Amino acid sequence: MISEKMIQMTKNSSAIRAMFEEGKQMAAQVGAENVYDFSLGNPNVPAPAEVKAAIEEIINEEDSLMVHGYMSNSGYEDVRAAIAASLNKRFATSFSENNILMTVGAAGGLNVIFKTLLNPGDEVLTFAPYFGEYRSYVSNYDGILKAVEPDTATFQPNLEKFAQMITPKTKAVIVNTPNNPTGVVYSEETIVRMAEILCAKEKEFGISIYLISDEPYRELAYDGVFVPYLTKYYHNTIVGYSFSKSLSLPGERIGYLVIPDEADESGQIIGAANVANRILGYVNAPSLFQRVIAKCLDAQVDVAYYNRNRETLYRGLTEAGFSCIKPEGAFYLFVKSPVEDEKAFCEAAKKYHLLLVPGSSFECPGYVRLAYCVSYETIVNALPKFDMLAKEYGL
Amino acid sequence: MISEKMIQMTKNSSAIRAMFEEGKQMAAQVGAENVYDFSLGNPNVPAPAEVKAAIEEIINEEDSLMVHGYMSNSGYEDVRAAIAASLNKRFATSFSENNILMTVGAAGGLNVIFKTLLNPGDEVLTFAPYFGEYRSYVSNYDGILKAVEPDTATFQPNLEKFAQMITPKTKAVIVNTPNNPTGVVYSEETIVRMAEILCAKEKEFGISIYLISDEPYRELAYDGVFVPYLTKYYHNTIVGYSFSKSLSLPGERIGYLVIPDEADESGQIIGAANVANRILGYVNAPSLFQRVIAKCLDAQVDVAYYNRNRETLYRGLTEAGFSCIKPEGAFYLFVKSPVEDEKAFCEAAKKYHLLLVPGSSFECPGYVRLAYCVSYETIVNALPKFDMLAKEYGL
Known about the structure:
The structure is a homodimer. Chain A is α/β, with parallel strands linked by helices. Chain A folds into two domains: 4-47 and 302-392, Aspartate Aminotransferase, domain 1; 49-294, 3-Layer(aba) Sandwich (Aspartate Aminotransferase, domain 2), CATH 3.40.640.10. Chain A has helices at 4-12, 14-30, 49-61, 64-67, 77-91, 105-117, 133-139, 159-165, 188-205, 266-279, 287-294, 303-320, 342-350, 376-392, and strands at residues 36-37, 100-103, 123-127, 144-148, 170-175, 210-214, 237-242, 255-258, 332-336, 354-355, 357-358, 367-371. Chain A has a seven-stranded mixed sheet with strand order 2-8-7-6-5-3-4, sandwiched between helices. In chain A, a hairpin with an 8-residue loop joins strand 11 (357-358) and strand 12. In chain A, helix 5 (77-91) runs parallel beside helix 11 (287-294) and helix 12 (303-320) packs parallel to helix 14. At the A-B interface, helix 1, helix 3, helix 4, helix 6 and helix 7 of A face helix 1, helix 3, helix 4, helix 6 and helix 7 of B. Chains A, B: Belongs to the class-I pyridoxal-phosphate-dependent aminotransferase family. Chains A, B: It holds the Pfam family Aminotran_1_2.
């Protein structure tokens, strides 16, 4: 009687909610400090001091009507210009404020761009494993998400399969690097080859294929790894960015889209995205935080904290006998389940109060995701539990 | 090639953008102080002092990870409980935090509830004149918006026509009181009769019809007028609220939905709305401002300022010979055009640098909307221009 699509969606999301509830129950029974919750991608490193200083400066020095008021649906011009200048400086791009659209986080940005691009039945490709919400974002606009099967040796995109899956119905490709859930950074070689494939297929089919780069983890990269800026490699790239992780502001819902001039129909896309932002009910990205991030474009959370977690957890898990790719970015580890049925493995882990997410949620069964955006103590205390779990499986 | 629906939507919204650009051009030519822009519903009364105090208190006293972090998609439990308690005190309702879903403004809330309720082809009724964005919000989910023609004598809903337009496909009715664009407050008599009609039609067709009350202007009511709280009159009422006008925070995108227990399928609707909030990409209402408004539930903008504008503008316009209903709420006046073609009248007004919105935008041609959320000086200085305009039409 209510939306049938939503009834279905609500059923599907009960698994995650069930785990969340289970964690809360577990914490009530054994104490929160004895539950090792690696299930949530919620930053545990606080926002840098610049954020608080920026808020204080703005509410004390800027006009309240301007700070909290409506602006253009695309966002404040000065904020968009500051972002464009920052990107140009970092990546030698040549964006102006016209190429930047402020959004309600990356999730809002992705919805805006899918609403702008997709006609019913259009196909969007992505690479397994991938963030499960993409399915909903594409389905919201009656598009069809198709996942390229993973190359589990490297978790770089499987480009051979990719090339085979592109059809005249392919409207967009969405990638996420550094990647959730693997922590892998797509290499420059991968990106160059992907761009070649896309250009060839655009020509072959006489279509435009937009490469959407979902980049909430861009600033979380370790060991000086190079994270290519995709607009430099492929003309039809659109970037979705979020400050949720780079400034630890996930609740504030602040991000932006980059729609470069060199994208096909860029003027039409920019105009339509602006309207989509309004009619989807975002209207505009939250105003105070637009002004805050403009003052914090050079600030960053304490990435060293995540890095220590990464090193400690990776070492501990591999020493215990588990196998996984060492992540170069984001705050996730994607561990091979010692048995094919990774859901059973997640169940077994719960005995030790270890909460893990099955790879099936990312269309990659046989693996589990650990989010290490937790306290260092949680990791140190969890490692003996992982040892016991490994022994149980004869590792 | 991009979304055909969005290309159409973008064309339709160019009229408003054109007026906005025209106003900017005009200001450049004759000086902003000589342009009398009554076109935008952007509050000109600053947020009350409590807002700034709340921001400072929160960033100084609360944990940054909690303040800027993820919470349940429905919002912070303590914030939702505070809102429920405030409503219960004011309206003798009996809501709990479970009935409150924090949203990205009222526009976000309306999108969430339409996504939750509508199946393709479902009909939503509203009363002309109405806020034009409703068309997009309903169309986003493939619903069909149908407008009941206005009763221009009172601008109370035309309930006779309303009763005739309800069919088995009617899923929802959306009302907005105090009303944009008329400033009329729907009377208790109107609401009681509307509820009777809805109950009878629910019974006749064996369906549920949800009454969605869009209430951004609830606190802007003058002369002590009674603004009924609709959940008290009809079981299937869902309220969409926004702090955009009550606290002058339109850019911050903060509001909530009330989904009462007595609504049919309320449990299912609450669950699905929670998921819709997430997958539409809002994820959650902006976190800092959730906490801010919880501290400001008894605060209010300076309504007396709007009231002085209302009295001055209404008196000036009627003395000049224009006719309009005296508004009891919101910050709009809906004036009868002296000629049938109100767009021509708006064009004529531009000669005096008066910017008005044609009633056609609200599906009510022959009238024009004036937003009086402008400075008092603008009104005082505009009145001689309205006099000249009136003389031109022989009023």
